[in-house]
Amino acid sequence: MRLATLRTPNGNRAVRVEGDTAIELGAPDVGALLALPDWRERAVARGRARHPLAEEALAPVVPRPGKIFCVGLNYRTHILEMGRELPEHPTLFAKFPEALVGPADPVALDPASAAVDWEAELAVVIGAPVRRADEAGAEGATVQSSDTADLVFDPVALVRYISRIVTLNPGDVIATGTPGGVGHARTPPRYLTDGSVLVTEIDGIGRLSNVARAITAAAV
């Protein structure tokens, strides 16, 4: 089952994606849906309004998560290309909802930086409150091992670790880190420029296509 948040003429709607059709689920977005105790039943409900699925109409899956945890240096190839040692514990930092864009939205290149890099990441969206989870209860997801074999801390380990620090609530997001191949590690370094197209795809989950667009200082 694939869930998404769709922009409609009447505002955002949580939807279930079936092929090229988006079926409304009775909530304004996926974050609001996950906060409902019966969200699983709603997610499979039939008979609600349907919309043709257009990639450009997709909003961030959770537009305003309560928490966004990012994991730094979590892929062995990326750690090695940056000249670091493998960490003993996850390295965490935060981002904020304003940093989110939809899967076909442009990525703004702020004039404050001339070295904006790319990072493809698998994100985990929390579906139920989690506090001090053990491995069996840590919201684990089955993914192809060939895609994530390079992870130092997999999604289950991250949920276990973070939930011992703070309660994870439905809709919270964990970005699990980027694999090797970032532009900063190249010789010479390579960064995003106006018109660069970022295509990110994970088998079984989906595909993003975002165009980098320079913005002027006056528009910031």
What's the shape? globular
Structural class: alpha+beta
How many strands, what sense, and barrel or not for the largest sheet?
A: 4 strands, antiparallel
Total beta strand runs: 11
In the sheet with the most strands, the strands line up as 1-2-3-4
Strand content: 25-35%
- Report mean pLDDT, rounded to a whole number: 88
Q: Helix content range of the residues, please?
A: 10-25%
Q: List the helices and strands in order.
A: EEEHHEEHEEEHHEEE
Which oligomerization state do the chains in this entry correspond to? Answer: single chain
Radius of gyration: 18 Å
How many helix segments? 5
Low-confidence runs: 140-146
Tell me the distance between the termini. 38 Å
Explain how this protein is built.
- The protein contains 5 helices and 11 strands.
- With 220 residues, it is α+β, with helices and mostly antiparallel strands.
- The protein has a 4-stranded antiparallel beta sheet. A 4-stranded mixed beta sheet has the order 6-5-9-8, covered by helices on one side.
Write the layout of secondary structure elements.
Elements: E1 2-8, E2 11-18, E3 21-24, H1 30-34, H2 39-43, E4 50-52, E5 68-72, H3 76-81, E6 91-95, E7 107-109, E8 123-125, H4 145-148, H5 155-163, E9 173-175, E10 197-202, E11 206-214
Parallel strand pairs: 5-9, 7-11
Antiparallel strand pairs: 1-2, 2-3, 3-4, 5-6, 8-9, 10-11
Summarize the structure.
The chain is α+β, with helices and mostly antiparallel strands.
Please supply descriptive tags for the structure shown above:
220 residues, alpha+beta, four-stranded antiparallel β-sheet, 5 helices, 11 strands
